[in-house]
Structure formats: structure tokens, C-alpha cells
């Protein structure tokens, strides 16, 4: 990279300062956790994203990346302490807020962060690369990119802590897994970018060879490869689950259309023991027979995990009500007054 694009020593000093565990770091991460937690509970994406303006978790991650590029193990230790301390602060703050508002239901914004997959990993890698390049470029604002990167860290940590306070251990683990995946991906991507733009040998400890960089970053790269495999599997499972749900809904819809006057209002899915339970809400002038339900169940393929499917139909009587009273609806849904 051309010399005019960045001053290496200045950027080095800025990254080292950003990795410090000081009063500003503690305060801003606590505030970020407060805002993000309430944004999650309010189911407000705008508040969740806006909360990251004050987050500072990107600093220690960049510090770890720079330390591995240069072989500065003292910076590695201090950045790691700052990162762990920041994660603990965010997690503890969100846990307290979650306990204070246990009456608020778990929102879609929280649930959206409980099933990480390969798409989340790719976003984190791109965010880490963007953050590292912004840190060394005089034309870009590292603060704005830092906000985008921090968005992938603080919300899943807060979601995990809130879920843990509700006793939802499985969902809490999924959200924490997302945060961990993002941390590893951001750190590895930013380290690669820093090495490519020439941040090696500034401290004269790490050497300039690619082999030395790979040796120092081996743990991060191995974790990244393993997580990529796991996230790829999760993505495959998610796609298979979505295909199963869409195909099942279509099968039920076509079957219900053959029932006189019936209409499929809703389809829900859940796991009950070894079987996948499909709940269909049907509006009709007459209840379907058990034989009709059994026929539709036979048309549904097995669940993605190979388990059987149990169809349960909730029948909702269909009536037409006017100021004069209830009008009897025939099987063909014809309103007698229209004749």
C-alpha cells in the first residue's frame, strides 16, 4: 500500500490504545449493552443497530490481530484480557436487564440470533476485513466500520444473556455461539488484512515471512475452518428445514382446497418427542373427518432429521354474521342472501 494512505506507526499506536481496558472502555460497553438489551426486548432493529455507536469491542479484537501479525505477545495478552473483560461486562449487564424484565416475551429480534450459520460467518469475515482496512486507511472512518462490526458482537451476547436468565439454555448457547463465531472470524480476517497491507515487522519481533504469520495465527485459522464446517452444516439444516416447511404448507393447502368450503388459515411446526408436529388451522363450515386428516398426513414427507410427521388440524367453524343474526353457510360457502 502506498505510503500516503496510512502512517504505520500512528495506526499501530491507535490500535494499541483501542485495545486498552480503561474507564472509557468499561463505561461505553456497559452503555452499549443497556441500549442493545432494551432494543432486543422492544424488538426494534433500529435501536439495536444504533446502540453500537458506543460499543468498543472492536478495539481488543484489532489489538489481537495486530499482535499476531507482529508477534507482540504482550499486546496479545492485554488485548485478550480487554476482550474477555468487555464480553463479561456486556453479558452481566444484559443478564441483569433480562431479570428485571422477565415479564416481556422473547422477541423475534432475540430469536433471530440463536441459529448461526455460514451466512453469519461470511458477514463477520467481511466486517473484520472492512474494519482492518478502515483502520489503516486515511480515507475511511474506522468508527463507522467499527459500529458495523460491533453490531455482530454485542446483540448476540445480550440475546444470549437474556435467554440464559429465562432458563432457555439451548437458545442462549446458540446466541453465544454466534458471538464467538463473529469474534473468531473478525479477528482472523482483520489479521490477514493487516499482514497484506504491510503490518509486519513494525516492532521487529514478528518477522516478515508468511510462514511466521501463519504459525502465530494457526489457532485462529484452525478455529475458523472448524467453525466454517459447523456453520455450513447449520446452513444446510436451515435450508432443509425451510424447504420442508414450505413444501408441507403447500401439500396441506392443496389438500384442504378439496374439502368443501374449507380454507387453510395457518400452519405451525414444533418438535414433540421423536415426531415433528405440524399444526394446521382450517376454517370451514364443517369439521374435517379423521380419514381426511390421515390422508393429508400420508402426503407429507418425513422431517429433515428423518423423524415422522404428525398432523394435527385445528378446526375453526366458519359463519357469516350480519346485524340480523347468523346466516347459515353451506358447504360451498354461498351466502343465501347473494342468491
Total individual domains: 2
Distance between the termini: 81 Å
Radius of gyration: 27 Å
Main pleated-sheet profile: 3 strands, mixed
- The run of helices and strands is HHHHHHHHHHHHEEHEEE
Number of helices: 13
The unreliable regions are: 1-5, 202-207, 331-339
Number of beta-strand segments: 5
Strand order of the largest sheet: 1-2-3
| Overall form | elongated
Question: In percent, how much strand structure appears in the residues?
Answer: 5-15%
Give the fraction of residues assigned to helices. Answer: 55-70%
Q: Round the mean pLDDT to the nearest integer and report it.
A: 83
Secondary-structure-derived class: mainly alpha
Protein topology:
Elements: H1 8-18, H2 23-41, H3 45-51, H4 58-70, H5 73-100, H6 108-111, H7 118-136, H8 142-151, H9 154-165, H10 169-196, H11 210-216, H12 218-257, E1 263-272, E2 275-284, H13 290-299, E3 309-317, E4 320-322, E5 325-327
Parallel strand pairs: 2-3
Antiparallel strand pairs: 1-2, 4-5
Helix pairs in contact: 1-4, 2-3, 2-5, 2-9, 4-5, 4-10, 5-9, 7-8, 7-10, 7-12, 9-10, 10-12
Summarize the structure in short.
This protein is mainly α.
Characterise this structure.
This protein is mostly helical and 339 residues long. It has 2 domains: 8-216; 240-338, GMP Synthetase, Chain A, domain 3. The chain is built from 13 helices and 5 strands. The strands form 2 sheets. A 3-stranded mixed β-sheet has the order 1-2-3, covered by helices on one side. Strands 4-5 form a two-stranded antiparallel sheet. Helix 7 packs parallel to helix 10 and helix 10 packs across helix 12. It starts with 7 loop residues before the first helix and ends in a 12-residue tail after the last strand. The model is unreliable at 1-5, 202-207 and 331-339 (pLDDT under 50).
Amino acid at each position: 500500500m502506498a505510503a500516503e494512505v496510512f502512517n504505520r506507526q500512528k495506526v499501530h499506536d491507535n490500535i494499541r490504545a483501542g485495545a486498552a481496558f480503561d474507564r472509557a472502555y468499561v463505561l461505553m460497553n456497559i452503555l452499549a449493552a443497556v441500549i442493545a438489551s432494551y432494543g432486543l426486548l422492544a424488538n426494534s432493529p433500529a435501536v439495536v443497530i444504533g446502540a453500537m455507536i458506543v460499543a468498543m469491542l472492536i478495539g481488543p479484537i484489532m489489538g489481537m490481530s495486530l499482535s499476531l501479525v507482529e508477534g507482540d505477545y504482550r499486546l496479545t495478552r492485554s488485548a485478550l484480557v480487554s476482550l474477555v473483560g468487555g464480553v463479561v461486562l456486556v453479558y452481566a449487564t444484559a443478564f441483569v436487564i433480562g431479570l428485571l424484565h422477565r415479564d416481556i416475551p422473547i422477541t423475534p429480534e432475540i430469536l433471530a440470533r440463536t441459529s448461526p450459520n455460514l451466512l453469519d460467518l461470511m458477514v463477520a469475515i467481511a466486517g473484520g476485513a472492512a474494519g482492518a482496512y478502515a483502520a489503516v486507511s486515511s480515507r475511511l472512518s474506522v468508527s463507522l466500520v467499527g459500529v458495523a462490526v460491533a453490531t455482530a458482537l454485542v446483540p448476540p451476547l445480550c440475546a444470549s444473556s437474556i435467554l440464559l436468565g429465562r432458563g432457555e439454555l439451548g437458545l442462549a448457547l446458540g446466541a453465544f455461539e454466534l458471538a464467538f463465531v463473529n469474534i473468531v472470524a473478525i479477528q482472523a480476517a482483520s489479521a490477514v488484512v493487516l499482514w497484506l497491507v504491510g503490518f509486519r515487522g513494525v516492532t521487529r519481533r514478528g518477522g516478515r515471512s508468511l510462514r511466521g504469520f501463519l504459525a502465530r495465527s494457526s489457532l485462529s485459522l484452525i478455529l475458523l475452518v472448524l467453525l466454517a464446517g459447523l456453520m455450513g452444516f447449520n446452513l444446510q439444516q436451515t435450508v432443509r428445514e425451510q424447504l420442508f416447511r414450505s413444501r408441507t404448507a403447500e401439500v396441506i393447502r392443496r389438500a384442504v382446497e378439496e374439502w368443501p368450503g374449507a380454507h387453510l388459515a395457518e400452519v405451525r411446526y414444533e418438535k414433540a418427542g421423536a415426531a415433528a408436529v405440524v399444526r394446521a388451522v382450517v376454517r370451514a363450515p364443517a369439521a374435517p373427518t379423521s380419514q381426511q386428516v390421515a390422508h393429508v398426513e400420508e402426503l407429507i414427507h418425513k422431517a429433515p432429521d428423518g423423524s415422522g410427521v404428525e398432523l394435527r388440524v385445528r378446526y375453526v367453524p366458519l359463519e357469516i354474521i350480519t346485524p340480523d343474526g347468523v346466516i347459515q353457510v353451506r358447504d360451498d360457502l354461498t351466502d343465501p342472501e347473494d342468491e
